[in-house]
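User: I'm designing a mutation panel for Alcohol dehydrogenase and want to avoid disrupting the core. Could you give me a predicted structure to guide residue selection? Please restate the sequence first so the numbering is unambiguous.

Assistant: Good idea. Sequence first, for numbering, then the predicted structure tokens:
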Amino acid sequence: MSGTYRAIQLQRFAESFRAATEIVTLDLTDPAPGQVLVRNHYCGINGIFDTQIARNAVDYVKIGLPTLTGVEAIGVIVAVGEGVADFAVGDAVVTTRFPGGYREWNLADQGHFVKVPELAPEWLALASTGVSAAMALEYIGAVEDGETVAISAAAGGLGHFMVQLAAQRGCHVVAVCGGSDKAAFARDLGAARVIDYRSESVTDILAVEYPDKLDVAIDTVSGTIFDAFLKNVAPHGRVVVGGAAADLEGRPEIVTQPRIAHSLYYKGASVRGFMNGLLTEQWPAARERVFSAYSSGDLKVRFDDRKFTGLEGIFDGIERLLSGQSIGKVIVDLRP
């Protein structure tokens, strides 16, 4: 395979992904034994991770400059190396391995890819964010049928899957999101109670309506929302930390209040960290459940209304996600 392709490369550490990266042209080569060559068609945006990578602030990823970027992409196999038995030319595949996302072509070990039924962006969202949602809710949150489940950023890429998965298990879902459009979307997904944090107090509503009643609370925001979830966790409840968008600047708020143990001990409750990259052995089972739910029509995929194309669109997609305006999954069409 001869020719070149373009990719986004991290060339320096900076405050923003746009400032830290450049679009570069690289040589296209044939796959070595055990490798597959994929033409990427769509990539998924992970704006908070991307920003922290740009700042060299992701503890579990050791960055050596320069490096390519991006995590999620779906494409079609164009060539396979010697010894590759599970994939063939023409297969649609997804990768969720850094740095396979923000590039027009991806050459990597066959273990980096998962075969999907068709070359459609829905399967990218399901294989990446859908699996993450299932892992956070079911594996770390250990949700049980009929429980009360609170979810922050409920109208986002991750949140909109968790709302559906919890509602399908008969859970009473408390969805926290910002703005009337997002609130309406969360209701349509099956949320029993929606709290619009732009016009309502999450702290006050939970204290009045859900005192000590949150069996599972999954937070990706931090700050006062995390505090409210923790204060109202039920006996034997689980608060899952899946991110800290409010602390993106790298300067976590210093708070003075009773230690977290006082919120947990007498309830037998727990706070659990969700880091999907540490759960790769559980991905296949979660993927099977998510794919099955989508195929049966029980799980829907929502993409943000803003359309982004080409590698240049990745920068705009990241900034769109960080703005807090997106609803659903943010993706970029990489096709020429």
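For picking mutation sites, this is relevant: The mean pLDDT is 95. The chain has two domains: 4-119+302-333, 128-277.
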